[in-house]
Amino acid sequence: PRTRQAIAYCLDRQAVVDNVLYGLVPVPDTYISAEHPLHDATLATYPYDPAAGMKLLDTIGWRDHDNDPNTPRHAQGVDRVPTGTELAFTYVTTSATQRRQVADILSQSLRGCGIGVTVFHGAQTEFYAEGPDGLLFGRNFDLAAYAMSTVTAQPPCARFTTIEIPDADNRWVGTN
Questions:
Q1: Considering all CA atoms of the chain, what is the largest pairwise distance in Å, rounded to the nearest integer?
Q2: Residue 37 Rama label (left phi>0; alpha psi -120 to 50; beta)
Q3: Is 156 helix (H, G, I), strand (E, B) or coil?
């Protein structure tokens, strides 16, 4: 959880809102809008604060071994992570213009904290292909970005349950 928190501090979501969404929406702190009656305003939020993110990564054991924030950090005493493992992710998304713009901003902000990111833009047919070979539904990624919406006022909580994890039992079409 602390690694995820550090990553959240390192994501410049305001730059995404300003540059890709033209400032038309606030930066979300959960997948439920702050204006929604079920939004929990007491939840911890993680504003863009790369210094706090890097400090937390150091505390956890993700060390900047070469004093170069542009190279990935390495594990040194991170719980359940072999020493020397790079803090690096593969980020997959579609080749749509907005997805490219978002990936550029987020990957650059992560790299600024010493988190390695390799971005892969797949064709929609490749990205949404059925599992186990497809990128999204085959769960062949570390980070993935795609758009989802709902047509009801009820938040789509069921999308994030265990039964929605794509696998052979649900024909690789779960939404979690």
A1: 50
A2: alpha
A3: coil
Whether 126 contacts 135, CB under 8 Å: yes
Q: DSSP character for 57?
A: H
The three state secondary structure string of 119-136 is: EEEECHHHHCCCCCCCCC
pTM of the model: 0.87
Beta-bridged to residue 122, according to DSSP, are: 94
**Which residues does 35 contact at the CB level (< 8 Å), separation at least 6?**
none
**Residues forming beta bridges with residue 92, ordered by sequence position:** 120, 144
DSSP one-letter string for 69-130: TTS--EESS-TTS-TT-B-EEEEEEES-HHHHHHHHHHHHHHHTTT-EEEEEEE-HHHHTPP
Q: What is the pLDDT of residues 111-150, one digit of tens each?
A: 999 999 999 999 999 998 988 988 988 888 999 998 776 6
| Structure-token pair, residue 161 | 């349950």
CB contact set of 158 (below 8 Å; sequence gap of 6+):
164
Contact, 27 vs 126, CB < 8 A? Answer: no
Give the tens place of pLDDT for each residue, 145-162. Answer: 987 766 666 667 777 788
